[in-house]
Every structure is written in C-alpha cells, then in structure tokens.
Design brief:
The protein is 28% helix and 22% strand. The protein is of the alpha/beta class. It has two domains: 46 residues, no CATH class; 309 residues, TIM Barrel (Alpha-Beta Barrel). The strands form three sheets. Strands 1, 2, 3, 4, 5, 15, 16 and 17 form an eight-stranded mixed sheet that branches. It has a six-stranded parallel sheet with strand order 9-10-11-12-13-14. A three-stranded parallel sheet has the order 6-7-8. Helix 1 links the parallel strand 6 and strand 7. Belongs to the metallo-dependent hydrolases superfamily. Allantoinase family.
C-alpha cells in the first residue's frame, strides 16, 4: 500500500453516519478512506487522539469580514485566524460592511485582492442584492458567489440599502432564472421602532418577534410565487417557526438558520450597558430560546452559524439605542453551542450536522461538510470534556469585544487541519470561486 500523508485516529470520529472509532487516511489534500481505528496503515505522519473527538471542519456561512474598507473592524487575517482557532475551516464572507459592498464583479475583484495571501482557512463569498443591481446578479453568479444577501429592513450601513417588496420580487425572479439562492435578513420595517430609552428592554421591545414573523411570511409568499430558493438568516424569534414549518411541508424552497448567541444567551442575562450583547434581530427570552432548540431538533432550522459581525470597541457605547449591533463569536461558536447542546442531550454528530454539513450544503461547497472519502481533509481535534474560560483579550478577533467574556464554555479545539495541513499561522486558505457557464 502506498503510504498516506497523514492518518488521524480517534475512537470518537464524527462522520455523517454518527460517531465511530476510525482511522482517517489522508492523501494530498483529501480524505482517501476511513479504516478501522486500529488498522495498521503506512503514513508519513500519524496522530492518535484516542478518546478525544475528531470532527469535520466547521463551515460558517455567515461571517462579516469587512475588508476592504472597514478592515479596522475586522480583516481576512484576523477573522480567519479566529475561525481556525474555533474549528472553522471554511467561511462564507457577507457582502456588506466592506467598502465597496460585493454587489458587482468589480467589487468582488476588490474582495479577492484584499483576501490574497491573508487567509488561514478557505473562503467563499456571498454577493449582494440591492436596489438597482439586478443586472449584476447573473454575472456575479457566473463568477462563483454562493448566493445573494438582501435586507427587508435597513441594514445599518447606507451603502447597502434594503429591497422593497417589488424590488425583492424582481431579485427573486432573476435569481430563480439561473437556479441561484437568495439569503434574507427578514424583519418587517413597519413593525420596527426607535428604542424608547438606552436599556436592553427598550431595545428588545423596538424589534419584536412579530417583525420577524411578518417578514418571513412575506418572503415565503414571494418564494412560492417565484420559485426562487430562499434562506432566512439568523432567526431569533420562535414566532417564525410555524410559518417556516408549514412552508417547508408545502414544498416551498425555504430554509433557515439560527446562531450560537440565540441558542446560548437570553435577554434575562443581558447586563446593564452590556452592548456586547446587542445584535439585530435581538437576543430574546429564555422560553424563546427553548423553542429555537426545539425548532433545530425538528429540522425547521437547519444551520447554526455565527453571524460574526464585529466593530471597533468604541462603537459599542453603553447605550443600546446607539451602539453598533453585532456579536463577535467566530472563534467561540463550537464551544458555545456544544455547551448548551450537551446539556440538552444532543451529541457531537448533531453539532457537526448543524455547523458543518448543513451550511456546506446550503452554500453548495463541494468537498466540505463531512468526514468522508473524497472530501477535503478538513479536520478538528476536539476535547468535548474540557472547560474553557473565555478571555476576550486572548481571542484572535481584531477587537476584544464579546458577550462570552468571563464565561466557562465546554470543549476545546486542540488542532485544526485545513486540507490535510495543520493551521499553523502560515496562511494557506484559498478562495472558493468556481466559474459557472
């Protein structure tokens, strides 16, 4: 037998079929085969994790890198370092908060130039759908963006305005024509208000769950009428679940995600002035959190991704009405979700499905999302029993701002391999763009 480049053994190898004792054999950048745990295999390098877990590299399809233009918020180097440290081997970059936003092929080229030589994990890209750029969607799709992000309410940055219903319909019709995907920030602007005070209760009341439900219902109707595949981003309100479930049962091509902060944090925990917790839509009640977990268990929500949306610390002023809305958690998503998932009786195979396989399938990323022969050798050595005290100053995110600071989370990432090589500070990530006819 020709020697393998790498063999990683674990009695807790998490495959698409569940946990098993296995030896994962790697040749070049790909998984060549899975063998019995104790199988004698010739290899240039061998790692035996014994009872530690071996996970597939996570796929985070909701990351705001912000470079170029707002690199002082977050850039490709810092974001992808944080990703690798958290067991994430592929990210998909959001089209807004960078300047220019990724709403044309020229802007995509600017992204690619900015990312070159900086990425510690593989990086794919979303395009943006904004008023007036319908003509740009097919060319961006042809260049290999994974789909198109749009807003139904103001985005928070003036260069990425929302789509009114008529504009949204036009975008969906255009994208349906070439079989693409539209991913949607779904809040109804008619049901949003300015907070009536600086505290969290006022902010939460200004963005009620009904605003998400209303927007999701409108989106489902448009998807049904146009035939466009749509995905609802960062569901925070359980009021959306019955609308989504009914649409999925009717065969409407709609899926949805939630985020670690909605599954692990709760409004009752938000401290006075703790604007590291501010995000849009907001973190809601403990009872709402329980219902989101139930929606995840039932498959109404398919993905758990970070919505890593960082900013400089000075924008997180201690006034919820004025502070920037975004949570930095790219490095912490796995441990945060595992902490709560384990408490609720879920296993590592569930976490891998939500955070690796389903996001990879959503974005259509070949070779990603699972430990199986033929896939990229994206692997994570994970100690599920370790306790990790979060110190924001020790994270790889550009700014030490996170609501998880001071919390003890369950689990620790020990080693991350990207396409068979350990992530070691030398960038060898690559852009995932596949030109389409």
């Amino acid at each position: 037998m020709t020697p393998f480049d790498l063999v990683v053994r674990s009695r807790r190898t998490v495959t698409p079929e569940g946990e098993r004792a296995a030896a994962v054999a790697v040749r070049g950048e790909r998984i060549a085969a899975l063998y019995d745990y104790a199988a004698p295999l010739p290899a240039a390098e061998e790692v035996d994790l014994r009872d530690l877990a071996l996970l597939p590299g996570l796929v985070d399809t909701h990351v705001h890198v912000n470079e170029p233009g707002r690199t002082h918020w977050e850039g490709f180097d810092s974001a992808t370092r944080a990703a690798a440290a958290g067991g994430v081997t592929t990210i998909v970059d959001m089209p807004l908060n960078s300047l220019p936003p990724t709403v044309s092929c020229d802007a995509l080229d600017a992204k690619l130039r900015a990312a070159e030589g900086q990425c510690h994990v593989d990086v794919a890209f979303w395009g943006g759908a904004v008023p007036g750029n319908v003509k740009d969607l097919a060319p961006l799709h042809g260049r290999g963006v994974r789909g198109f992000k749009c807003f139904m309410s103001p985005s928070g940055v003036e260069e990425f305005p929302p789509l009114a219903d008529g504009e949204l319909r036009l975008a969906l019709e255009e994208v349906a024509g070439f079989g693409g995907l539209v991913i949607v920030h779904a809040e109804d602007p008619e049901l949003l208000a300015e907070p009536e005070g600086p505290g969290y209760a006022a902010f939460l009341a200004s963005r009620p769950g009904a605003s998400e439900r209303s927007a999701v219902a409108r989106l489902v109707r448009l998807a049904e009428e146009t035939g466009c595949r749509v995905h609802v981003l960062h569901v925070s309100s359980a009021e959306c679940l019955d609308v989504l479930e009914a649409a999925q049962a009717r065969g409407v091509p709609v899926s949805a995600e939630t985020c670690p902060h909605y599954l692990t944090l709760a409004a009752e925990q938000v401290p006075e002035g703790g604007t590291a917790y501010k995000c849009c839509p907001p973190i809601r009640s403990e009872s709402n959190r329980d219902l989101l977990w139930d929606g995840l268990r039932r498959g109404v929500l398919s993905c758990v991704v970070s919505d890593h949306s960082p900013s400089t610390a000075d924008l997180k002023v201690p006034d919820f009405a004025a502070a920037w809305g975004g949570i930095s958690s790219l490095q912490l998503g796995l441990t945060a979700v595992w902490t709560e998932a384990a408490r609720r009786g879920h296993g590592l195979a569930d976490v891998a499905r939500w955070m690796s396989a389903a996001p990879a399938a959503l974005a259509g990323l070949p070779g990603k999302g699972g430990i199986m022969a033929g896939n990229d050798a994206d692997l994570v050595a994970f100690d599920p029993a370790a306790d990790t005290l979060v110190d924001a100053a020790r994270l790889h995110h550009r700014h030490p701002v996170t609501p998880y600071h001071g919390r003890t989370l369950k689990g620790a990432v020990l080693t991350t391999w990207l396409r068979g090589r350990p992530v070691d500070g030398r960038p060898h990530g690559r852009p995932m763009l596949e030109a389409r006819a």
